[in-house]
Design goal:
The structure holds two protein chains of two kinds.
Chain A lengths: L10 H21 L3 H29 L3 H36 L13
Chain B lengths: L6 H18 L4 H27 L6 E11 L2 E9 L1 H24 L5 H23 L3 H19 L6 H32 L4 H10 L1 H22 L8 H4 L5 H10 L4 H8 L1 H5 L2 H22 L5 H21 L3 H28 L17 H15 L5 H19 L5 H30 L7 H5 L6 H16 L17 H6 L26 H26 L6 H9 L1 H8 L4 H48 L7 H19 L1
Antiparallel strand pairs in B: 1-2
Helix pairs in contact in B: 1-2, 1-4, 2-3, 2-4, 3-4, 3-10, 3-15, 3-20, 4-5, 5-6, 5-10, 6-8, 8-11, 8-13, 10-15, 11-15, 13-14, 13-18, 14-15, 14-17, 14-18, 15-16, 15-17, 15-20, 16-17, 16-18, 16-20, 17-18, 17-22, 18-22, 23-24
The chains are: A mainly alpha, B mainly alpha.
Chain lengths: 115, 662
């Protein structure tokens, strides 16, 4: 296949996928009670953001002659992945502590910090 | 000593500070006495050395600047002292009489506890400091520091026996009443700054005197405001009510502060600012009327009082009235002359009464005294001499000054000074009447206290004794001054002599000539010989001597020998209305209580209960706290502790934010 045969995917499609993923993640965070599941949902949200970064990088690369402009969004993705990894370390430690305390990682049972 | 005038007040201040420390350390009385009397003694010596040097010179106003006290915008106030003839006269008698009374206090206060004794001398020294600052200050702000300082010490010393509620109340009364006057004084200082851009005596008086037309209006305002201050400090109508109550303090304090020195500060300020007063006929006549009316009114109250110190207190109010009358008729030097002679004989009288009280275990009621002549001869003779002086018996000190006041008042009426001739004529009659009353109530006090039989209980009679040396020596010195003190103002014009009236000649430079600036001698018009004939003058002397003798004889008839006390009792029974009115001091305190004190107190209670407690405390302070607490009580249920609720709130908020920003 030559590039001329390939019909490029419009970047709006990618954005739409990103939005759908973000919504799925958000609903998961709000509705799931298992802390690990919430955490996974949260990862989905982060990755939907990464996808949006990639889409915009693709979009703006088309308008610019220099490659540097197109790299901005992609570099951000690496930052997000790094932060997500750090967050996973802290989050998992929290869940282990929670499990030791309550013998469960059901977040609805971790509700003593209230009025 | 000239060049370091500051040493004179500072010595007294040092005494006060050291005595306060000694009081805290519970030092023995001998140390306190050394410091207290020694510091004032040193200040007196310093003052007289300075005066001796000053008299070598042709009486200039020597101003010593020490440092810049206030510098704000175009206004600069220096911390500076001044020695001019007026300050010199005041300095001379304030230090001397003050020293004598310090010595007297050693004997009078010897029964006090160590702490109280040190406190007493600390306050007394502090008073001397403030008073000296007052008479030496070369501008109004420095003078005002002294003015407030003497008021503070007066308050502290009136309330010296603060364990007694009524003594503490008397102190507060003196302080609060003086505050009213001080407001006037302060406004006068501000006005002076506004008009002249300075409050330095050596600048404002020549400026005002050389442009009489330009400054006439301002001078009226400043003079009247200053006089409000003088009314408060010198206990004139309507603010005289604090002085009789001030007798709650120890008797030497009454002698020093509430007779000889502090209360004459009002007269001093009027004489000091005589340029402003002379520019304003209105202010002059106000001063004269207030003074004349006070002189008579206070004398009438003094007629029937039985407390020996109350008699002397009303007598002081009355004599201060005479001083203001003198100032009001333009006889400023005579006012100061009377200040000086009054300091001698009134200090002597008060110290004599203190000696009596001391000997009678604190008894002040003259109806329970009597016949003390044979027990305490020194006190008797000095008291009698001072009484002769205040009554105006010829050749005693008070005769010269009082006679001159009466003469100058008469001539003011005769020449129609400033067009108020009628007013001054009436004032002359009042003053003559007051002189009669003065002679009567003073001899009444002498007869009731020292003549007849002792009317106290036997226990007291057994303990009757003459006072110790430290008390009698000051009495004798003041007694001698009450005899010879008047010769500093000998009325030479009665003998066609000039140069006999030392004090008037000495004080002449203080009375700046109005109009054209004439450097040097004052113009003739300013020191015009009273415009009454020679015969009239002698006639006036005769009249004032006659009323004094008549007053004396009436008192003698009323209170001595067969039927003593019969006549006054009969009069009191016949004229109960007048007697009660006088005995109850015209019920002025009650009237003030109803018209002013109680409404003010009610207003204060309103401010306290309604404004402070209800509005500020309850509504604002606690109301805010209550509202916050209530809101928190409701809103805390938002904090469910459930992490998914928080997440939902965050998500909803983001959606809402997105919706808004769309």
């Amino acid at each position: 296949m030559t590039p001329a045969d390939v019909v490029p995917i419009p970047y709006t499609w990618v954005l739409a996928l990103s939005a759908v993923l973000f919504a799925i993640g958000a609903v998961g965070v709000l509705l799931r009670r298992n802390a690990i599941a919430i955490f996974l949902s949260l990862e989905i949200m982060l990755n939907s953001a990464n996808l949006a970064f990639a889409a915009f990088a693709y979009r703006f690369a088309a308008g610019h002659a220099t490659a540097a402009a197109a790299l901005d969004g992609q570099i951000f993705i690496f930052f997000v992945i790094a932060v997500a990894a750090a967050e996973a370390a802290v989050g998992l430690a929290l869940f282990i502590a929670l499990h030791r305390l309550k013998d469960s990682i059901d977040v609805d049972r971790a509700n003593i910090l209230r009025w | 000593m000239l060049g370091s005038l500051w040493l004179i007040p500072i010595l007294c201040l040092a005494g006060a500070v050291i005595n306060l420390l000694l009081g805290a350390l519970k030092a023995p009385k001998s140390v306190v006495t050394t410091v207290g009397v020694g510091s004032v003694g040193a200040a007196t010596v310093a003052a007289y050395v300075a005066l001796a040097e000053y008299l070598q010179q042709p009486y200039p106003a020597i101003v010593e600047r020490y440092f810049t006290w206030i510098s704000a915008g175009e206004i600069t106030v220096n911390a500076s002292l001044q020695l001019d003839p007026l300050s010199a006269v005041m300095l001379a008698f304030v230090t001397f009489v003050g020293f004598l009374i310090h010595v007297y206090s050693v004997g009078y206060m010897h029964t006090e506890t160590d702490g109280g004794y040190a406190r007493y001398f600390a306050y007394l020294n502090l008073f001397m400091f403030a008073m000296l600052l007052l008479v030496l200050g070369s501008n109004l702000p420095v003078l005002f520091i002294g003015w407030e300082g003497v008021g503070l010490c007066s308050y502290l010393l009136i309330g010296y026996y603060y364990e007694n509620d009524w003594c503490a109340a008397a102190g507060s009364k003196a302080f609060i009443v003086n505050r009213i006057g001080d407001l006037g004084f302060l406004l006068a200082v501000f006005t002076t700054f506004a008009v002249f851009g300075s409050a330095e005596f050596s600048e404002i008086f020549p400026a005002a005197a050389s442009h009489p037309q330009q400054y006439a209006g301002a001078a009226t305002i400043i003079a009247l405001l200053l006089f409000v201050g003088a009314i408060g400090k010198s206990a004139q109508i309507p603010l005289y009510v604090w002085l009789p109550d001030a007798m709650a303090g120890p008797t030497p304090v009454s002698a020093l502060i509430h007779a000889a020195t502090m209360v004459t500060a009002g007269v001093y300020i009027v004489v000091r600012c005589n340029v402003f007063f002379r520019l304003s006929p209105t202010a002059m006549v106000v001063v004269a009327v207030i003074g004349g009316v006070t002189a008579v009114l206070a004398a009438t109250i003094g007629l029937v009082q039985n407390d020996i110190k109350k008699v002397l207190a009303y007598s002081t109010v009355s004599q201060l009235g005479y001083m203001f009358l003198a100032a009001g008729v333009g006889a400023f030097t005579v006012a100061i002359f009377h200040v000086v002679t009054h300091a001698f004989f009134k200090a002597c009288l008060f110290l004599g009464s203190g000696s009596v009280i001391h000997a009678n275990s604190g008894e002040q009621d003259m109806t329970r005294l009597g016949g003390l002549r044979k027990y305490m001869p020194t006190t008797y003779w000095t008291f009698l001499v001072a009484t002769l002086a205040i009554a105006g018996i010829p050749l005693f000190a008070g005769f010269f000054s009082k006679d001159e006041i009466l003469a100058r008042t008469f001539s003011a009426g005769a020449v129609g000074l400033n067009g108020y001739g009628d007013v001054y004529r009436i004032l002359w009659y009042l003053a003559i009447g007051g002189a009669l009353l003065t002679a009567f109530y003073m001899f009444r006090a002498v007869y009731m206290t020292f003549h007849g039989a002792f009317r106290g209980d036997e226990e007291t009679e057994r303990h009757l004794h003459e006072s110790p040396r430290s008390m009698t020596v000051p009495l004798i010195i003041l007694g001698i001054l009450s005899i010879v003190g008047g010769f500093i103002g000998f009325p030479g014009q009665l003998f066609h002599q000039t140069g006999w009236n030392l004090i008037e000649d000495f004080l002449k430079p203080v009375i700046l000539p109005i109009g054209e600036v004439t450097h040097g001698a004052a113009t003739a018009a300013d020191h015009a010989v009273p415009a009454v004939s020679f015969t009239t003058e002698w006639l006036l002397v005769g009249v004032s001597v006659a009323v004094a003798v008549i007053g004396w004889l009436i008192a003698r008839r009323f209170y001595v020998g067969e039927g003593a006390f019969g006549l006054p009792r009969m009069l009191a029974d016949r004229l109960p209305l007048i007697h009660n009115l006088l005995f109850n001091k015209y019920r002025i305190d009650e009237i003030y209580g109803t018209l002013i004190v109680r409404p003010v107190r009610r207003f204060a209670v309103f401010l306290w209960r309604i404004v402070d407690e209800l509005i500020i405390d309850t509504l604002f302070v606690n109301g805010t706290a209550f509202t916050v607490e209530l809101t928190g009580d409701v809103l805390r249920f938002i904090q469910t502790g459930n992490v998914r609720n928080y997440a939902l709130a965050v998500a909803a908020a983001i959606l809402a934010l997105a919706a808004v920003l769309w």
